[in-house]
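Reading a protein record of the kind used here takes only a little practice. Think of the row as the fold of the chain written in a discrete alphabet. A record is reproduced here so that you can trace the correspondence yourselves:
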Amino acid sequence: MKKGILMLSLAAGISLMAACKKDKSEDLLDEQTTQQVTADDDARIAASDNEELDDANRIIAMHPRLRGINFMGIYNGLVVPCNTTIDTSLISQGKVTVTFNGLNCNGTRNRTGTMIIQLHYDANTNTVTPWSNAGSQLTLTLNNVEITNVSSGKSITINSTRTITNVNGGLIDNSPTFATPILHHATGNTMVTSDNGTTRSWDFDRNTLIERTKNVTTITITGNASQGGYSNVSVWGVNRAGNTFFVSTDTPIILSSDCNYNPEWCESASWCCSRTDCNIWC
């Protein structure tokens, strides 16, 4: 395995740390290309993570046993994820299985594979800890979920397990404004296979703050781990080129529903590279 640490920063404030000591222009170009591919991969995986979690939250919100029968919210207008089959046969144990069969509701991504939603279940008392409770934990497992971007035709296949803690409690419903922001802390591992067959493993530890004002939802993501001598690390692992990388969110990643939660939507992009550091930003 090729070892190395890359350094780049995305528009959303992601930094992938590494030594970038290249003397030849072609080496710099290769380094820049590798950084851009890693940045693109991270953006695609982050968009997928947000979409699947949003799907899980909508499903949970529609079932009182999962959301909490005493939690008050606005649930009218909620719909199940498009082109999915939802198995609730084990909902009494806090488990729901979602099978993806086609386009998402926005028509931007085609999905196949399964997602398992599991809330904490106590077999001794036969009780499920509702997702709206402060400190409640949700486990999302993706099994061979293939996601194809409709516009580019590029695809990735994800196998992952992540545990999400609802730190302050509350639930993402259809309220036009959230009185109190919702904070999720997520940890886990993702195995990603690209459309050229390359497989790599990524770990993550991040906080996600969800706010909504006048029907505009804003998601703010920050890193929560210390890895490889770096702080504020949200993602770390090995990229397509076999290089070790660390994603340090020194500047929070901000995604908005106004921009389809896409961190790559920028008016312009610029490069800066020297012998000691490489950065890309929008």
In short: Confidence is low (pLDDT under 50) at residues 1-29, 264-282.
